[in-house]
Amino acid sequence: MLCALVQNSMVVSIVTIPDDGGTSYSEVASQYQAAIDITQAVPQPQVGWTFNGSSLVSNGSASMKITKLALKNRFTLTELVEIQAASSVANTEGFTLQVLESEESVATFIDLSDPNTIQGIYYLVSVNLLTSDRANTILTTPPTAFEAYTG
Question: How far apart are CA 28 and CA 23, in angstroms?
C-alpha cells in the first residue's frame, strides 16, 4: 500500500509498505504522527501536504525551494558548529554528514518539500544534532522573499 507519513501535521514522506497483514505498517506507523493509506487517493497527496486531523490537504502551489544560503541561515550558529564538528569525526555519522554536505554543495537549490531534504534534516535529529521541533521549523516555515529560489 502507498502511505503518506505525517509528522507535525505535514506529509514528510510517501512510501510503499508491503501488504503483509499489518506488521510492516504498524512498525512504520509507530514512528510517525500518522501513516495514511493513499493508494486510491485522487489527487495523489504529495510531500508538503498538511494533515488536518481527518484528511490530507494540498498546501497549494507555494514553492518550498530556497537558496543554499537560506538553508544555512535557518540553522543557529551553535547548530552549524556542532554539525561541522560532528562531520569531522572519522566514523559513520561523520561520513554521512559529509555526504549530506557534499550533496548540498552541488545542488542548484534546496527544496524543503523534497523527501531527500526531509530525510537529511531528520538525520540530524536522529544523531542528536537537531531537535524535532527545530527540524520541523526549518522544513515547514514558508520561504521569505529573500530566501526563495527564483532561478
Answer: 9
Domain finish residue from 21, 40, 57: 57
What would you measure as the largest C-alpha separation in the chain, in angstroms? Answer: 48
d(CA 16, CA 142): 28
Q: Does an H or E element contain 16, and which?
A: strand 10-16
Tens digits of per-residue pLDDT, 74-129?
999 999 999 999 999 999 999 999 999 999 999 999 999 899 999 999 999 999 99
Length of the chain: 151
Q: What domain range is 105 assigned to?
A: 65-140
- Cell numbers at residue 56, please? 490530507
Q: How many helices (H) and strands (E) does the chain have?
A: 6, 7
On whether both 82 and 130 belong to a single domain, the answer is yes
Overall number of domains in the chain: 2
What's the pTM value of the predicted model, to 2 decimals?
0.61
CA distances from 91 to 64, 84, 88, 99, 125 (A): 32, 14, 9, 12, 17
